[in-house]
Amino acid sequence: ERAARAAAGSGARAADAGAAALPSGLRLELIDPGEPPAPPEPGRAALRALPGHPAPTAGGGAPGAKPTVVGSPGPTVVGSPGRPSWGSSGPSVKPSSPPTPSAPSAKPTTPRPSASVPVTTTPPPSALDTDTDTDADAEAATAGAARYRAPRPGIVTRAGWGADEKIRETGHVYSKTVKVAFIHHTVTGNNYSCSQAPSVLRSIYRYHVKSLGWRDYGYNFTIDKCGKIYEGRSGGVTKAVRGAHTLGFNTNSMGIAVLGTFTSKKPSAKAVKAVAKLTAWKLGLFKRNPRGTTHLVSGGGNKYKKGTSVKLHVIAGHRDGFATECPGKRLYKKLGSVRKTAARLQGR
């Protein structure tokens, strides 16, 4: 301050000394520039607005609010209240109240499969058939084949008829597809009551496993005189489980047995209708026409040599693939009506 006044006095004397040299009417005046600006406080940096954050106000913002500090010095640019303010990195809008930080977005994850949805190992339809088919496969290949599906009938599970799961072999054997449904009779008595049917199934089951040495119950399904359908060999009623019912043709087929003997006695109408319902549904899963024909290759038996390609009805009798009277003359005669009813149930 003293230096400034001294400089001012020196300038005044110089002005007086040179006043005579100035033209008449002119006067030289020196203005005191005032005090120099104070240097910035050490360690304090300039404040800048960041994108997405409010710019600090000239007075430091609301009481208690902490301004955003940016390491590189620079001027603070503040917009008018309610208008966007711009910092060095881009626009920033000053809100009327401090913003509430939002929770970070959850990282998307791959949805886990539902536990209620079963896992299937069935190959795609294009990989199901390796044998040569005729009209059944030709029709299945058409665009409308998938619509020929029948409703699933009621099926009593193995647990429902009391199958002892400890006596069968573990694991299951599957075919690639189901091309033929072979119809059988069990050659047991016809005088059982419907409530006795489960006990008849249990006796057949023990005979197949304990006496014949088979891995499980031979037939894929069994039907009683009241039209009730029972799950036979384990492995899944919708799958192509390979059974033991028609020697030489157990692969790519299923076996359905009607309880009783039908050499001279007619099967009940309820049983015949149940055969139609079951074949319509199960064959529909594999795009088979119940009124069609197909070919199976013999694995060796008493009627066809191994390797022989045999033309069969899609719904056939046991006797069509093996030298036997099964399923009995009276039941065998019903197969024509079974095919017709099954096709109708499929919507054909």
UniProtKB/TrEMBL annotation:
Regions of compositional bias (Low complexity) in chain numbering: 43-57, 64-95, 103-120, 139-149
GO molecular function, one term: zinc ion binding
Alphabetical GO biological process terms: peptidoglycan catabolic process
The organism's place on the tree of life at top rank: Bacteria
Domain N-acetylmuramoyl-L-alanine amidase: 166-328
Family: Belongs to the N-acetylmuramoyl-L-alanine amidase 2 family.
Protein name: Peptidoglycan recognition protein
Species the sequence originates in: Streptomyces rhizosphaericus
